[in-house]
Specification:
By secondary structure, the protein is of the alpha+beta class. The protein has 13 helices and eight strands. The chain has helices spanning 3-22, 27-34, 38-45, 53-62, 69-82, 86-89, 93-107, 126-140, 146-156, 173-177, 183-196, 243-257, 263-275; strands at residues 83-85, 110-115, 166-172, 202-207, 221-224, 228-232, 236-240, 261-262. It has an eight-stranded mixed β-sheet with strand order 1-7-6-5-2-3-4-8, sandwiched between helices. Strand 6 (228-232) and strand 7 (236-240) form a beta hairpin. Helix 1 runs antiparallel to helix 5 and helix 7 runs parallel beside helix 9.
Length: 279
């Protein structure tokens, strides 16, 4: 689990402990009032077990401080938003995920994205996006509406043309060599990459197979301004907001960029990859 989530859990537990102590109650006494086990109270206060919203309300009411319940429930909601299971997100469909991402992208001014195995969503063609989302459906064992999600993803790409926004994309050579969909789909995607790399708002770098950068992350991530990092794992989406973690990812992005091929050199690598697409 990320340090941000652990820290947020401990902070929430600490606040609940302060509420208990301000009421002059021991952990044992509070457990008796709530008909809970004492270990449960201890686990919540030390961040080993997150409370539910109703448990926060019950806790603060028993301590005579129900007025702080709203603030603590907000902290709980922030904590829960840091780690969101894909199956929970998919209840609103793939299109719902795309719409949520579009709202977030309106706010961000500087995007730094690293992807080791896939073309970033903001640069995908409809055919490539369809292949990626179909694979996601198979992995999650669901049958969400692919076409709606593809349409939403294409609409998100309008943000690439907005003044005042900057995009720094860093991908590995594997992302342009690993085929998604059929040959025509991949050829169209590579052509799209060449085109979008000429936009004034976009910087596209490719890490060649024969390069040994100072550090190469094993998973993709998106840094939004200097505020947060979004990491997509197999099971969930993780959002990191603690400044030390955001700074560490920014440092890693810089290290991974060292020696990467940008702009004209990147386009030449893409052209060679297009020539080598297998039949």
């Amino acid at each position: 689990m990320s340090h941000s989530i652990e820290r947020a859990r401990r902070d929430l537990g600490r606040r609940l402990r302060e509420v208990r102590r301000s009421a002059g109650l021991t952990g044992v006494q509070l457990a008796e009032l709530l008909s809970w086990s004492q270990p449960k109270v201890s686990k919540i206060e030390t961040g080993r077990q997150p409370p539910t919203a109703s448990e926060i309300t019950t806790w603060t009411r028993a301590c005579g401080h129900v007025q702080v319940a709203g603030e603590l429930i907000d902290k709980l909601n922030d904590l829960e938003s840091m780690w969101v299971d894909w199956k929970d997100q998919l209840r609103g469909g793939l299109g719902g995920i795309q719409s949520r991402m579009a709202v977030e992208e309106e706010r961000v001014r500087l995007f730094r994205a690293y992807e080791p195995m896939i073309v970033p969503g903001l640069l995908q063609t409809p055919g490539y996006a369809r292949a990626v989302l179909e694979a996601a459906n198979r992995k999650n064992g669901v049958s969400c509406d692919i076409e709606e999600a593809v349409e939403q993803r294409m609409r998100r790409q309008e943000v690439l043309y907005r003044r005042g926004k900057r995009f720094r994309f860093l991908i590995s050579e594997a992302a342009v060599r690993h085929r998604r969909g059929d040959r025509e789909t991949m050829a169209a995607q590579l052509d799209r990459l060449i085109t979008v790399s000429t936009l004034s708002t976009v910087s596209l770098g490719i890490i060649p197979f024969d390069l040994s950068p100072p550090y190469l992350p094993l998973h993709g991530f998106w840094i939004h301004d200097d505020d947060s990092v979004v990491v997509e794992t197999v099971s969930a989406e993780l959002t990191l907001t603690h400044q030390s973690e955001v700074q560490q990812y920014a440092h890693v992005f810089t290290m991974a960029s060292s020696g990467a091929r940008f702009q004209g050199q990147a386009r030449e690598m893409i052209r060679r990859a297009a020539e080598d697409i297998p039949e």
